[in-house]
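Lab notes, practical 5.
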Amino acid sequence: MDVIRWERRPTLRRPLFVLAFEGWNDAGDASTMALGYLARTWNARRFATIESEEFYDFTVTRPHVRTTGSGGRRIDWPDIELLAAEVPGAGHDVVLLRGVEPQLRWKTFSQAVVTVAHAVHAELAVILGALLADVPHTRPVRVSGTTDDAELAGRLGLGPSDYEGPTGIVGVLHDALRRAGIPTASFWAAVPHYVHQVPSPKAALALVERSAALFGARLDPLELRVAATEYEREVSQRVADDADATAYVAQLERAADSDYPEGDGAVTDLGAGGGLVLGSADDLAAEVERYLRDHHGDR
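Output from the prediction step:
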């Protein structure tokens, strides 16, 4: 059974592949919110889906029933969507993958993703994620970046992950794409664990800015900036109503200010995994371009 359902074959300029999944890897809905924002901003159009029947336990990820305009009813199944878009002002187009983290047959699913990546000639895969951490909501979001590609790590100032333990589909896809010869990197936004149940546009904004920098694309994500400001204000109000929470956040703020006294809004913290702080957005885009040209040629 072919699990990839092609609706069309997009013609793309040296595409970069950006992936994000709902679930275990998506604290505060930040990574999927970021990918959704990129899809809307760049007018991404769906070109394929990955069949859900093979990869989901429908008692965990349930299909939805809804009424139609004619008074009938239909079932919406949780497919993985693949979208493509031109990126204005950049030398690369984008392929986006979004959906709920699958529960079954991860090896087969990863091979399907690899097949799509090869079919569209993706030059680099970037997987977005968000994790819960001991960070305050009042400080710039820390975005950690990792890659297993030594040359890419050196050029972008990334480091290898030193995490050992249970992994999600992000870790599995990193391994599958790397084995297939497609360089990969991941960006993880840190979300305050004490507001884990609240969607975090502030973390999504940090991932959007970092992703756009990879493409060399200029974005003005005003919608997310406004939402991030409102998020911080609402969380601060909640914290202010609890003396213990107020003291705890103050402790986190002191720790954050000690680690990053400059308070840069584009902080990248590689934590125990090592690595260097990423440079400016322009520097990041230039290094990505040089790396890809060295590996794929000047197309």
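Observations recorded by the TA: Residues 263-279 have pLDDT under 50 and may be disordered. Strands lie at 4-6, 16-22, 45-50, 64-67, 73-76, 80-85, 94-100, 124-133, 143-146, 184-192.
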